[in-house]
Amino acid sequence: MDFKSQVTGPKGLSAAVADALLVVVAGAELPVDLDSVLAEALAAAIKQGDFTLKAGQLLYAHRLAGVKATRVVFAHAGDGSAKALRKAVAAGLAPIKAGGAASLAVAVAGVTLTDAHAEALVAAVTDTLYVYRHTKPSAPAESKLRSVSLQCSKAETAAVAAGLKRGQAIAAGSTLARECANRPANHCTPSYLADQARKLGKDHGLKVSVLDRKDCEKLGMGSFLAVAQGSEEPLKFIVAQWQGGAKNEAPVVLVGKGITFDTGGISIKPAPEMDEMKYDMGGAASVLGTLRAVAQLKAKVNLIGIIPACENMPSGRAVKPGDVVTSLSGQTIEILNTDAEGRLILCDALTYAERFKPAVVVDIATLTGACVIALGHHRSGLFSADEELAAQLSAAGEQALDPAWRMPLDEEYDEALKSHYADMGNVGGRAGGAITAAMFLKRFTAKFRWAHLDIAGTAWKSGAAKGATGRPVPLLTHFVLSRAR
Ligand code: BES
Ligand code: MN
Ligand code: ZN
User: For 75-102, b where at least 16 C-beta lie within 10 A, e where not — what string?
Assistant: First the structure.
């Protein structure tokens, strides 16, 4: 998809050359800056009871007199915020996306456009047009839409152009993450993730290295290896580096959980919806997506992605409840529940991150069902004892319309991890499960500033429109960009 900004000509929107026109209006009054032909049409529709100036309202018109574009959609965007615009554009595309239009002009009346609006437009268009088809040849045909122009004033063009550029990089990253997480686990294996990382490296100038089981054994990643040992699928430990900043500048490190399928292991999960556990590599996917976005923007920042990738399977060689392993940090872990495997692969990756002397480390993981119960599917769980880092990540989430919510890390929660046979158990009780999982990770982060994002509820949508969301690529990209020179 091609996105551009276009200064609306003197004859106004009705003269805009495009196959379709999406007119977004905001506020409770008919906007004064709306082209007179379109304003008249809209006023008539309001008068005849076919449109109301309220959020969510939608009206389609074909061959509207005096308008050059064949198709016109009016959509109301509530208060005119970027978030409201995203919703209005998604709704407004419904009558257009499956039709014959190849070019779309979008105008937003009653609003001064910012970069956030432009970014939201790109997100809405790419999200709405995305169709998973890799293993489904019968999926709906691709939309004919090829170009989208955002109409703006001269004064708005610089901000709009910047927002479109950032939006497109984030959209490409989100789509990559989405595509990986949607792929079934027999397609998206640890080796596939490693190949994706190598391909990213080639296309976008990243340095990529992949460790295999022998390497991990030499290093002493007893915890990661314990999870991987039940599967025939070879594990991969992926490290990808974007060097956009000065050589000696401390990097931002992102660590993504890459469980390409989570059966639970010997502590096996119930059958219903187990298929969805193919998205247990959503954290890994978001790391790849963010690397892609940051590299596409050639951001002046050093960014390293670390992805421990394997399957969690039951088998004759699988790790058993009660087994004790030694993590890369030297701390021992009693694996009381093999289904709490995410923290077991992340702890070794976090210890591995120490060697990069990171400025900050953020891990991203579909870590707990408890987080879904706590926050639902709208906000990711954000955990950090570092006030400033937590504030930066929260702010990035709000800006990116990919929000998170801070959760506590009081030391009292750590009690639950006590073990009779090792330095710690890998589970506490059911209560506060998302927090005890974070407390477990925290034990491996003494050497750097650290935050954890639990994306179990946000990386995936269940129900009719089920599938991967590409989150939290927008949040992470905003966060990394905020640290660039
Ligand atoms: N991958 C799951 C968490 C998960 C659950 C993600 C639902 C997305 C949707 C994780 O590995 C897991 O199984 N966690 C257990 C932890 C428990 C055994 C302490 C859980 O949440 O039940
Ligand atoms: Mn699990
Ligand atoms: Zn898992």
Answer: bbbbebbbbbbbbbbbbbbebbbebebe
Residue 437 to residues 347, 407, 413: CA-CA distances in angstroms?
11, 12, 10
pLDDT tens per residue, range 175-199 = 999 999 999 999 999 999 999 999 9
> For residue 263, is pLDDT > 90?
yes
Q: Is the CB of 344 under 6 A from ligand 1?
A: no
Q: How far is the CA of 343 from the centre of ligand 2 (A)?
A: 9
> What integer best gives the mean pLDDT of the chain?
97
Spatial contact of 451 and 442, defined as CB atoms under 8 Å apart: no
Q: In the structure encoding, which two tokens stand for residue 258, read together?
A: 């890459």
Which residue in 400, 364, 379 sits closest to 478, CA to CA? 400
Pick the atom of ligand 1 nearest to 436's CA: 19
Q: Return the ligand number nearest the Cα of 425.
A: 1
Q: Whose CA is nearest to atom 17 of ligand 1?
A: 340
Q: Does ligand 1 come within 6 angstroms of the Cβ of 38?
A: no
The encoded tokens of residue 85 equal 């615009």
CA distance 89 to 73: 10
Q: How confident is the model at residue 479 (pLDDT cuts 50, 70, 90)?
A: very high
Tell me the best of 224, 312, 334, 368 to mutate to test the pocket of ligand 1, counting ligand atoms within 8 Å of each CB and taking the most. 368
370 lines ligand 1 (CB under 6 A): yes
Task: Answer whether 441's CB lies under 8 Å from 368's CB.
Answer: no
Q: Who's near 371: CB < 8 A, 6+ residues apart? A: 381, 433, 434, 454, 456, 457
CA of 340 to the centre of ligand 1 (A): 6
CA atoms within 13 A on the CB side of 253: 24
Cβ atoms of 44 and 15 closer than 8 Å:
no
